[in-house]
Write a structure and sequence with these properties.
The chain is an alpha/beta fold. It has helices at residues 30-35, 39-48, 77-82, 86-91, 107-119, 146-164, 172-186, 197-200, 204-210, 250-253, 261-275, 321-334, 348-354, 366-379, 413-422, 456-466; strands at 20-26, 57-61, 67-75, 98-102, 137-139, 189-194, 218-224, 230-235, 237-241, 281-291, 303-305, 311-313, 339-344, 359-363, 383-385, 403-404, 431-435, 439-440, 450-451. The protein has two domains: 8-135, 3-Layer(aba) Sandwich (Leucine Aminopeptidase, subunit E, domain 1), CATH 3.40.220; 149-466, 3-Layer(aba) Sandwich (Aminopeptidase). It is built from 16 helices and 19 strands.
Length: 469
C-alpha cells in the first residue's frame, strides 16, 4: 500500500540549535539588499559575482570556513512570471544545514516558494537504492500556514507516487488499496464492486473495458464527512492502456502507466481536503481497470449499453477512458452533488492544444471557470478553459447508436470527448472536467521528470469559495 505520509524531506523542521540565514533576493532588489549586508558579506558577493539570477545560489563562508549565510536568486519580474518554485529548484544546491528565511516577499509569493521547497524534497526511490545525500532543512517563517502547505505537499507526493509506480505494481487492486489506505487514515467508508458483479450492479462500460485483463476491473466509491455541501470527485483509473484491439504502437504505450493519472490526482486532492478537515461531504469515485487484449476484449464496431441507458458505438477501443468515466459519472449524477469534478488523462488533443504544463478544463459554469482561472494564477498551477462547443455535438452521434466513442476526422478531440462525458451528467449543474497530462516530461524546479499532479492545487484554492465553506 502506498505510504500516505510525506517523507521528512517534504516537511518543515522545528527550531533546534543553530540555523543559517537564507536570503531570497530578486534581481531588482539586489542592490538595496547588498547595501544592507555586512562589509565582509558584500565583498564576498561582489567577488563571486552573485547577480540574483533566477535559481542561482551564493554560499557565504564565516571566518572559520563554515557557512555564515546563503542567498538564492529569484531573478527579474519577467523571470518570476516564466518560472515557478525557484527556491525549491535551488534546494539541492544548498548544503545539508538547517536554514531560516530572510526575505521581503508578499504572502502569496512566499507560499509558492515554501511549497516549492517542500515539493523539492520528493523522491521516488521505491525500486532503487535511495538517494543518500541529505537535503537542506528549513524552519517555516512566522505567519505561514504550515499545516496547509504540508497537506498540499503530502497530497502531491501521493499523486506522484501512484503515477510513477509501474503497472506491474499498480493495477486495479493496488489502486483500490490506495483509496482504502486513505479511507482508513481519515475514517472514510469505501465500497467496491468487482468483476462480473459490475454487470449485476449496472456498470457495463467499466466491465467491458476491463474484462480482457486477468486483473479484475472494479468501481471504487469512497465517502467521508457527515455534513456540509456534497463534493464528488471522479477520476479515470485506467492502470495500463494497451489500446485494446486498436493496439497502440510501442512508443505510445511506454507512458501508459500514467493513464490512471486522473484517479491519482483526485486521490491526492482528497488527501488535501481531509487533512485540512473541510466541512464537506466528500465522495470519490474511481473506475479502476486495465485495458488489455484477449479473446473477450471489446471490438471495434461493437455497440455497448451504458449505465445511463445510452448506447455507444465503439469505433476505437483506445478511446476507453471516456467509457469507464461515463458509468462513473452517471452514478455520481444519480445523487447530484453541489459540485462535481472529473479528472482524466483523456486525450492527446489536449496536449496538442496547451502542451504538458497546462490543465485544460471544460465547464458550463462561468463563475466556476473564472474562479479556477484566478486560483490557478494565484497558486501557480496553470489551468485554462476550453469550449464546450455545441456545434460539435453531431460529431459524437453515429448512425446506429446514441453516441460514438471515437469520432472520425481527428479534429477537436478534447472537446468532443468532453461533450461525450457531459451527456452522462444531467442532474448536476456545477460540473467541471479536466483533461490532464499527469507527467512532467523533463525535470523542472520542484518537479522531477515523471508523474505530477495538475489542477489539484488550483481546485484546492478555488473550492472553498465555490462551495461557500
Amino acid at each position: 500500500m502506498t505510504e500516505l505520509t510525506a517523507p521528512p524531506s517534504m516537511r518543515f523542521v522545528a527550531q533546534s540549535g543553530r540555523t543559517v540565514p537564507l536570503h531570497l533576493v530578486t534581481a531588482d532588489g539586489l542592490a538595496a539588499w547588498t547595501e544592507m549586508q555586512p562589509r565582509r558579506m558584500r565583498a564576498w558577493l561582489e567577488a563571486t559575482g552573485f547577480a540574483a539570477r533566477v535559481g542561482t545560489v551564493a554560499l557565504v563562508p564565516d571566518p572559520d570556513g563554515g557557512l555564515a549565510a546563503a542567498a538564492v536568486g529569484l531573478g527579474s519580474d519577467i523571470d518570476r512570471q516564466r518560472t515557478r518554485f525557484n527556491l525549491g529548484g535551488a534546494r539541492a544546491r544548498l548544503p545539508a544545514a538547517t536554514f531560516h528565511l530572510e526575505h521581503a516577499l508578499p504572502q502569496a509569493a512566499l507560499d509558492e516558494e515554501l511549497l516549492g521547497w517542500l515539493l523539492a524534497g520528493y523522491r521516488f526511490d521505491r525500486f532503487r537504492r535511495p538517494d543518500a545525500r541529505p537535503l537542506a532543512d528549513l524552519i517555516a517563517p512566522d505567519g505561514v500556514d504550515v499545516a496547509r502547505l504540508e497537506a498540499i505537499a503530502a497530497g502531491e507526493a501521493l499523486t506522484r507516487d501512484l503515477i510513477n509506480t509501474p503497472a506491474s505494481h499498480m493495477g486495479p487492486e493496488e489502486l483500490e488499496g490506495a483509496v482504502v489506505g486513505l479511507a482508513n487514515r481519515f475514517g472514510a467508508a469505501v465500497s467496491v464492486i468487482y468483476g462480473d458483479d459490475l454487470l449485476y450492479h449496472n456498470f457495463p462500460l467499466v466491465h467491458a473495458v476491463g474484462r480482457a485483463s486477468d486483473r479484475s476491473p472494479r468501481l471504487v466509491d469512497m465517502r467521508w464527512g457527515k455534513a456540509g455541501p456534497l463534493l464528488t470527485l471522479v477520476g479515470k483509473g485506467v492502470c495500463f492502456d494497451t489500446g485494446g484491439l486498436n493496439l497502440k504502437p510501442g512508443a505510445s504505450m511506454g507512458l501508459m502507466k500514467k493513464d490512471m493519472g486522473g484517479a491519482a490526482t483526485v486521490i491526492g486532492l482528497a488527501h488535501m481536503i481531509m487533512a485540512q478537515g473541510w466541512p464537506v461531504r466528500l465522495r470519490v469515485i474511481i473506475p479502476a481497470v486495465e485495458n488489455s487484449v484477449s479473446g473477450n476484449a471489446m471490438r471495434p464496431g461493437d455497440i455497448l449499453l451504458s449505465r445511463k441507458g445510452l448506447s455507444i458505438e465503439i469505433n476505437n477501443t483506445d478511446a476507453e477512458g471516456r467509457l469507464v468515466l461515463a458509468d462513473a459519472l452517471a452514478l455520481a449524477d444519480e445523487e447530484p452533488p453541489d459540485l462535481m469534478v472529473c479528472m482524466a488523462t483523456l486525450t492527446g488533443a489536449a496536449r496538442v492544444a496547451v502542451g504538458p504544463d497546462i490543465a485544460p478544463f471544460f465547464t458550463r459554469d462561468r463563475a466556476l471557470s473564472d474562479a479556477l482561472m484566478k486560483a490557478g494564477d494565484a497558486v501557480r498551477d496553470p489551468v485554462w478553459p476550453l469550449p464546450l462547443h455545441s456545434g460539435y455535438e453531431t460529431n459524437i452521434q453515429p448512425a446506429i447508436a446514441d453516441l460514438d466513442n471515437a469520432p472520425a476526422g481527428g479534429m477537436a478531440g478534447a472537446i468532443t470527448a468532453a461533450l461525450f462525458l457531459h451527456r452522462f451528467v444531467e442532474n448536476t449543474p456545477r460540473f467541471v472536467h479536466f483533461d490532464i497530462y499527469g507527467h512532467q516530461p523533463s525535470a523542472a524546479p520542484a518537479r522531477p521528470k515523471g508523474g505530477v499532479g495538475q489542477a489539484a492545487r488550483a481546485l484546492f484554492d478555488a473550492l472553498p469559495a465555490a462551495l461557500a465553506l
